[in-house]
Amino acid sequence: MRLTPGPARDIDLAEVDLFDLDLYSHGDPHPIWDVMREKAPLHHQVLPDGREFWSVTRFEDVHRVLADHREFTSERGTVPTHLGTDDEAAGVLMTSTDPPRHTEVRRPLGSKLTARAVKAWEDKIRGTIVRFLEPALDGEVFDLAEKALLLPAMVTGPLLGIPEKDWENLVQLTAMVTAPSDRHFLVGHEAATLAISHHELVTYVREWARSRRATGDEDDSLLHHLMSVRPGGKPLTDEEIALDGYSILLGANVTTPHTVSGTVQALVERPEQYAKAQADPSLIPNLVEEGLRWTSAACNFMRYAVDDVEIGGGTIPARGAVVAWIGSANRDAAQFPDPHTFDITRANAKRQAAFGFGPHFCIGAPLARMTLRIFFEELLQRFDSIELAGEPEHLRSYFIAGMTHLPIVAQKRQTP
Fold first, then answer.
1. Crossing angle for the helix pair 238-253 and 190-215, nearest 10 degrees?
2. Does the residue 165 lie in any domain?
């Protein structure tokens, strides 16, 4: 998906297909979202197979849909790939569960992922990122998007309690879940790709939990901590641990790589912004927030209306599916003046919606923010300049906005 939109054009919203994968792999949805925010903030689409959904694109409406679980439930599925078929794991899988159960499972995990808690990992994460960037120092072509797919596993694998030998396979599986039609991850056809990846990820966590129970091994990892969670006073079963662990693996792996590559692309295309951040490292935390806004790697989330709901000048009927477009909310001029300009000094960049809102606000946000901050600190310190060495290749997904290839050549910064 292009992050810098092309020129405005005439758009017939009656002909728009927001599930057209070509729109994201080779097209440009931003002009469409611009028109939707202005003319149809509540947009209804019926797919050729009869499935239907409503879309909200304005920042305030996206906030309302994601923040209010009493009006918009997560317990029938939260990603568009589930549209038309209720999520079988709803009510158990953390991402497809509403409070109070969601809160009972999430709160003890969240205590290990606060900004204060993850601070202890800063030195290890910095060492990981330095090793990650090292191959780019030789001045050869470095495919940042391809390499960055493994970066979250390198950072979070030890935190989760996952051995290094399993990282690459789990990254591949999580990518299959979120982009099952992309040629890099497709296995046969989309349905098969989703079924295989779901089964293998759940099986991996289930066997991990059974092995830990059998051996009695204990550690301070996040997955092990999940085994001690007791919603409603009862411990999670191995199947519940498997499903919640699956949810954690997806959250850990799928967005950070695309925030990294998309933000680097924005800096490459705007060398004055790169120079500004390099000259003033105090801007890096705001660079991270603007990068999160700009890339909106988690492009959307889905909910279902509990009852008839008036929103965006229209009505979503009870049980109607509604897709909240994060990528559009983060370009809403009512919140972000001149929204299609990448500006690392933007005053309110931290209002970005990339982590969602409400009960399902990204539990790993403090870790993601710290990882991205360290990444750009090290990048700017080590590289004098970065240039594209080929055309970016965009992910074929309407759920995750990202890239599969971003070839770059970096010039090593000379120390005085």
1. 120
2. yes
Please state, in angstroms and rounded to a whole number, the distance separating the CA atoms of residues 254 and 173: 10
> What is the model's pTM?
0.94
Residues in the chain: 416
Pairing of strands 407-412, 142-143: antiparallel
What is the C-alpha to C-alpha distance for residues 35 and 104, in angstroms, rounded to an integer? 40
Q: Report how many domains make up the chain.
A: 1
How far apart CA 236 and CA 233 sit, in angstroms, is 10
Integer CA distances (angstroms), 17 to 72, 77, 290, in order: 23, 21, 28
Contact 320, 305 (CB under 8 A): yes
CB atoms within 10 A of CB 35: 19
Q: Spell out the per-residue pLDDT of the chain, length 416, in tens.
A: 788 887 777 899 999 999 999 999 999 999 999 999 999 999 999 999 999 999 999 999 999 999 999 999 999 989 888 888 888 887 788 889 999 989 988 888 888 899 999 999 999 999 999 999 999 988 899 999 999 999 999 999 988 889 999 999 999 999 999 899 999 999 989 889 999 999 999 999 999 888 887 877 777 788 888 888 888 888 888 888 888 888 888 888 889 999 999 999 999 999 999 999 999 999 999 999 999 999 999 999 999 999 999 999 999 999 999 999 999 999 999 999 999 999 999 999 999 999 999 999 999 999 999 999 999 999 999 999 999 999 999 999 999 999 999 999 999 987 65
CATH of the domain at 129: 1.10.630.10
| 235 prior amide bond cis, ω within 30 | no
Give the whole-angstrom CA distance, residue 124 versus residue 119.
10
Question: Quick check: is 72 in a domain?
Answer: yes
**Does a structural domain hold residue 8?**
no
Q: What six digits make up the tokens of 216?
A: 């009695």
The pair of structure tokens assigned to 5 is: 């939109």
Range of the domain at 401: 13-412
Answer whether 414's CB lies under 8 Å from 94's CB. Answer: no
Helices of type H across 40-96: 59-67
Distance CA 410, CA 383 (A): 6
Q: Are strands 393-394 and 383-388 parallel, antiparallel or unpaired?
A: unpaired
- In terms of Cα–Cα distance, which of 244, 232, 233, 259 is closest to 205? 244
378 belongs to a structural domain: yes
Q: CA-CA distance, 214 to 227, in Å (whole number)?
A: 13
Q: Bridge partners of 325? A: 300
